[in-house]
Recover the amino acids of this structure.
């Protein structure tokens, strides 16, 4: 069991002693370590059971500090950082040597973000190194949006989880970088495409790949519950609805027992739905049922990222 608390100095002391700490952000909880210490970074891969070809995001608290980890910031990415940081955006930038290949899995670019959470910003301010942090879940499983989620899955392997309450955004950050001179979104996330395009114009949306390690973290099957997940639109008539669960957008499924259902937002608010998504998937995953039925939400705003996670949860 890990200790759960709000003690920044305790978290700081552990991180300085090359330990991992569970760390709240506005998107999802992270599993943090000193990004400049390869021994600490190696522990992240080990505890998460994460393949070493999947690189980590580096977290810091100011754009001035970002500049010390990278060679330069292309103009459009600097505009996005100024506009949306701290916030749910991660930018891919050409790394300086101070960022090790272990963090970037040998890639030339490092993923950096400034999380928008009072506790994590206060911690980052106290530290004289940035934090490498993937989402604090075993590789491939649903991301955690509360300290208790982290404790449930990784508590055995952690000493301390900094408790920042429930994540306000609930979806991982949106990842943006340049590719062939075009601004490209590599992962849809907590900052909507509309918000990004409102500031820098049209962007390219990179489709995910299940096989190409040059496009890491875009594995087709990811964010996946242990139960079988199928779309409502693919339901077969012979499925016994007493042994299934339902993750709905705004309305329940009349033929399924109420206790086996989770509604993302009865008032059809996509931000609320995003905030509830991983909690809902976890709730359904621990019920005594065989199959989870899901339905897509409107493909706009954060709905695009929600649908992305739902499709990956259903992918085998
Ligand atoms: O909201 C978030 O981004 C959360 C919180 C904790 O900050 N973090 C998060 O980390 O979602 P993780 O490791 O679960 O997902 C990071 C994604 C991975 O898909 C990884 O492949 C991609 O970012 N990534 C990291 N560094 C990269 C790089 N240098 N180039 C391309 N993709 C990168
Ligand atoms: Mg993750």
């Amino acid at each position: 069991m890990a200790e759960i608390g709000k003690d920044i100095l305790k978290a700081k002391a552990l991180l300085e002693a090359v330990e991992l700490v569970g760390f709240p952000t506005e998107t999802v909880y992270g599993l943090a370590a000193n990004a400049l210490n390869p021994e600490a970074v190696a522990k992240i891969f080990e505890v998460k059971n994460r393949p070493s070809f999947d690189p980590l995001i580096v977290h810091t608290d100011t754009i001035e500090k970002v500049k010390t980890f990278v060679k330069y910031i292309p103009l459009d990415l600097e505009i996005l950082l100024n506009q949306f940081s701290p916030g749910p955006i991660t930018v891919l930038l050409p790394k300086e040597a101070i960022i090790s290949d272990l963090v970037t899995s040998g890639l030339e670019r490092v993923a950096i973000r400034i999380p928008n959470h009072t506790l994590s910003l206060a911690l980052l301010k106290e530290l004289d190194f940035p934090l490498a942090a993937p989402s604090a879940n075993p590789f491939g499983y649903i991301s955690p949006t509360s300290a208790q989620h982290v404790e449930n899955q990784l508590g055995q392997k952690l000493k301390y989880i900094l408790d920042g309450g429930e994540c306000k955004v609930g979806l991982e950050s949106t990842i943006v970088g340049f590719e062939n001179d075009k601004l490209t979104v590599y992962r849809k996330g907590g900052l909507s495409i509309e918000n990004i395009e409102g500031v820098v114009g049209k962007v390219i949306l990179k489709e995910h790949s299940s096989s190409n390690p040059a496009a890491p973290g875009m594995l087709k099957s990811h964010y996946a519950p242990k139960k079988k997940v199928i779309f409502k639109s693919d339901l077969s008539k012979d499925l016994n609805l007493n042994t299934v669960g339902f993750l709905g957008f705004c309305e329940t499924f009349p033929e399924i027992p109420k206790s086996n259902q989770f509604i993302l937002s009865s008032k059809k608010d996509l931000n609320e739905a995003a905030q509830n998504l991983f909690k809902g998937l976890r709730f359904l995953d621990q019920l005594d049922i065989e199959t989870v039925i899901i339905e897509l939400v409107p493909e706009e705003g954060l709905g695009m990222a929600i649908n992305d996670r739902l499709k990956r949860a259903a992918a085998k």
